[in-house]
Amino acid sequence: MSQEAVIAASKAYPKPAQTFQYGTAGFRMKADLLPSVVFRVGLLAALRSRYKNGQVIGVMITASHNPPADNGVKLIDPMGEMLESSWEAYGTALANAEDDQAVYDYYTHLEQKFNIKSSVTPQVIYGSDTRESSPALVQALKDALDAVGVKSQAFGAVTTPQLHYLVRCLNTEGTDHAYGKPTLEGYYSKLSTAFNHLMTNRSNGSVTVDCANGVGGPALRELQKHLNPDSITIIVTNDDTETFSKLNSQSGADYVKTNQRLPPSVTAQPLARYASLDGDADRIVYYYVDAKTSTFHLLDGDKIATLAASFIGDLVHHSGITDFSIGVVQTAYANGSSTAYIEKQGLPTVCTPTGVKHLHHAALAYDCGVYFEANGHGTVLFSPSALQRIFTHEPESPAQATAITHLKNITELINQTVGDALSDLLLVEVILAHKAWTPDLWDACYTDLPNRLEKAEVVDRNAFKTTDAERKLTHPAGLQDQIDALVGKYDQARSFVRPSGTENVVRVYAEAATRTQADELAQKVKALLR
Ligand code: G16
């Protein structure tokens, strides 16, 4: 790598007059502000790979649930997890370097700081969602990777979780903890093989999936080709990736969760199952309308977490494996009823700040850590020792043997690198089929407290600072006292305010004993921000 090569390549991507920050899920903003950021993220990915002795690092270009004009970029670490948080600050500093020379200087500063050897060939793989702006940003990334001699591989339009899967597979290939075949075919094959085993002699009718007109649509169609058609029929809707303006518009997991209503394109049949993915297919929520009043009911990330934790808990119990810890990790958005329900099952719960990187980390503390954000982003992790026990356990009865076989397949079905809407979809379908549950039976486990999520545009979202896993504000001074005073006026109420890490807004959450109270509380707290 020469100084001239980096500076010459960087010249094509001048930094706009803007301050950037690696947020909840990488850098995310209007796409036209991003070329310089993506270029510099490419440099950081190269450094990260060299720092990790040439292991493969992933770069995903996506803005997930954000509107079509936005885009974003995030890094994936070698085991398929989010970038180690201490490196986010280096990304932020590199993105904000004022000119090409400053970019080069900071790059070499990091090389020296970490004693990164130039003899190691960096390896990076990358992919993007289906946004109109993605190809140009991919080019910016490629130019950076080429400028610093990275061995790179493009995977084109992929879901975010697919790229996480590929990174882990590439870094574990040939080892005794190989994760799978490092190809998209390997991904579909791993998930579908486990699903088809778990669904042997079972059928779960049909589920209609709204793909937010994003990359999840083509991926789901491909996955479906691998599934036993006698087990499940997946009706794919909102899968127009050609009309860019349709992405996440009036559709998708974020729309359904935030508005708590059906996408306008869906006419729901009573008790039929519906699900919505987000723009890069790492989130999923379910919903249905009931038979009596055709009322909409949401089955969100909390409901998926409780379903998965109880199902896995039952399998462990029936397998004869003992001393096996299962914990559920949530965020402040988790409905109070879900937390109470999980604790009533005797399972520990932990609350972390928003962002799967935080939940993922907390879930590692258990043999089986189930983590889900209420917005439908989550997965299940099995620790290496838990996997070892599951795969070597000698069953003492046919019932134990069946439970062990199911557990083994569950560990293969779940994408353990990150929340994955396609893997989660199959997991939910398997569990409902095994329990012979219609969506109302699933929903009946506990009743959500009515809640409302609002966005507020403020002058400076960075003025909002939180503590206690984002459940309380420390700044602006005095605001938390005002929120507490309002909360005290309602029954079973809770409310918090936090700055979004993906959009230029502040989020307001409120829940209370009745719909009227939850709505009123949310509006009153929002009014405090004006
Ligand atoms: C991203 C993160 C999620 C987070 C969401 C909203 O999701 O990966 O963990 O819940 O943003 O974050 P915030 O409230 O900070 O804007 P996605 O699906 O957009 O990548």
How would you portray this structure in words?
The protein starts with a helix and ends with a helix. Strands 1-3-2-4-5 form a five-stranded mixed beta sheet, sandwiched between helices. Strands 7-6-8-9-10 form a five-stranded mixed beta sheet. It is of the alpha/beta class. A hairpin with a 6-residue loop joins strand 8 and strand 9. It is built from 18 helices and 19 strands. Helix content is 41%, strand content 19%. It has four domains: 3-157, Alpha-D-Glucose-1,6-Bisphosphate, Chain A, domain 3, CATH 3.40.120.10; 186-298, Alpha-D-Glucose-1,6-Bisphosphate, subunit A, domain 3 (Alpha-D-Glucose-1,6-Bisphosphate, Chain A, domain 3, 3-Layer(aba) Sandwich), CATH 3.40.120; 301-443, 3-Layer(aba) Sandwich (Alpha-D-Glucose-1,6-Bisphosphate, Chain A, domain 3), CATH 3.40.120; 451-528, 2-Layer Sandwich (TATA-Binding Protein), CATH 3.30.310. It has helices spanning 3-11, 35-51, 85-96, 100-113, 134-147, 160-172, 184-198, 216-226, 252-259, 301-319, 336-344, 356-363, 384-392, 398-413, 421-435, 439-443, 479-487, 515-528, and strands spanning 27-30, 56-61, 70-76, 123-128, 151-157, 206-210, 233-237, 273-277, 284-289, 296-299, 326-331, 349-352, 368-372, 378-382, 451-456, 465-467, 472-475, 494-499, 506-511. Bound molecules: 1,6-di-O-phosphono-alpha-D-glucopyranose. 1,6-di-O-phosphono-alpha-D-glucopyranose is lined by residues 24-25, 64-65, 278, 282-283, 354-356, 373, 375, 377, 500-503, 507.
